[in-house]
Amino acid sequence: MRGGVVKQEQRGEQLPSKEEYLALFEKEWAEIHEGKMPEIGLKVEGRAERKETCEDVKLKNREKGIFLVADGVSSAKGWLAARETARTMYELLGESLDKQIENNLQEALREGEDPVERITSYIGAQITTAIEQAHTRIQAMAVQPEFKGSATTLSMAKLIDLPDGNGGHLKRLFFANVGDSRIYVQRKGGELQQVTQDDSRLQLRVERGEITQEQARQIDQVEDPSSLPADLRAYARGRAIITKSIGLGDPTEGLGVFFLDLQPGDRFVIVSDGVSDQLVENQIEASVNGNLDDAQAEEGLQKTSMEMSLDGRHPRAKGDDISALVHTVEETGQRREYLRSEVRRQQTEETLQATVRKLKEVLAIARERVQRADKELQGMDAMMPKRERISLMLEKEQAVEQESLYAYHLEKTQLDLFDQQVPPRFEAGARVDMWRDDFDPPSLDRQPWTVTAYDAESKTYVVRGAGGIQKEISRYALENVQHGLLVRVGDTIPAPNEMGAMEKGFKIVAFDTDGTVVLMKEKEGVVKRSRMKAESANEAFFGLVYRAERSKNGMDHAIQTYHQAKERQQALKDEAVLIERLESRQRALDLAQEKISAGNLEKEIAKMERRLQEFKTLEEEGRFRGLSSQKEARRKELALLVYGSRTTLSLEQLLQQKKQELKNLLNGE
Fold this sequence. Notes:
The protein is an alpha+beta fold. The protein contains 18 helices and 19 strands.
């Protein structure tokens, strides 16, 4: 429908009537939105009369990983802006973005880049672009007087499963916010936390330094604004006024696209201000915690908010549309079958072979880096400070981590190529032989097992045996123990060339009646043909399966090496921190000792100066008036110190020496 709307605008024709538009949108949304629709708000809190049109839109589509709440600005025909924004997000950030992500992933691997870093940057840019396009679309439609000024808030999230480089996946939640709808995240067993920042007049006061962030939160979360300190009440009156929206102004100015890595069991909540202006954060958290089912949690939040609106007596009550969206992160993530078929179509033998070549190049570079680091470690001086030694060891482990990452992707891509050249042999329902390590001695099970499924991502069959026992087994381990002729037309296997040597890349085109296999290979316009016995072709197939099993083992080894390198890095970092703490403590002790030493020297110097001054005073007094016998004895005692002897320094010399010692100590020499 969206394309039609834009074309009508370009021709200067009228949009469909409001009734037609809303009916078509409702039909479209029923197919893509999961869960409860928003609650139509009251015209005025405390009165049961509902508004004519709901200006909130929710979208929850787990398959495409897109979640949003758009709250149309009531005074500006916001129902249109909210719906067009939601539609734009779905079109640009749903299936379309998923396919672009997969393309970027494959390109990153071919070019030796970090796929997670590349995709993270790409998604952030695409979310910003989608918001810009929604803004442009609304402004184009708002040339008609009845839609002038149409605007909306938006809180949106995109949940993506990204490869973590060690055989697993990151469940990364990207999110952005325009206006005062909100996103909260609750870690499994943890507290609910707001992760977006409102574009509101209250937040603007914080940015201008008029109030602190803590005071703004106090204003936002107070149940009765009249209970606030007098100096904050004035700020509470304008807290709900937004400073940014899609459709008016520039929604991308200062826009931040953020991400969090979530775990299974974590939840996120998106609400319009129809919820967050009425319920304080601990009420939202209590309602979510009271409903483990997401749909019930959504219904609970919307129902509680509506009850407050209907009652109307609570200081936070308001007559507004109400939207709440709750999603719990699942273990398995999105299946996205539409993406799987697209990936299978795009990953031709040619692209996979190019990826293998590129990965071999970057893996060789990574291995050289490991070897260099190893050589530096072996050649380092035994007296090298431990801090520098740890730095070199850390550099080596980082190189090992990078090497194992590329090794994993190389083995994985080679397995993808194998699946292209020699597709899995068995479909659901096939009867297969099963090796039993749990038998004594290990042997083939006498009873055949039944294949129930094959997962192309993990390269594993799910098989069921007698008594309903179910197991997962790698494709290669299973196919390697089968008997009979397993090669098929279409398989790409090594075959003898015109010189009689085995050459890769021949495709089976037919089985002849004489028990031979006909094969062909085309490269750069040159066609080669070959024949071989079916049994020999079967042996070639099993040779490929054996090599594929080695690649799978290599993949597993790379994962293990990756984890070990990460663990060693952490241990080295911890050791470096410990050394820093010990050195810091030693510096503090040395400084304290220096202070003690300096204090002692200062006391010695002061004592020497007093004695010198005392001697000078006695000398002066004796010259003019003479000294008593007691004072004369004291003068002679001091004279021995002041003038020194053949074996001792004079007091002046000792004083200069002590002053130099103090100076050196204070200068750290």
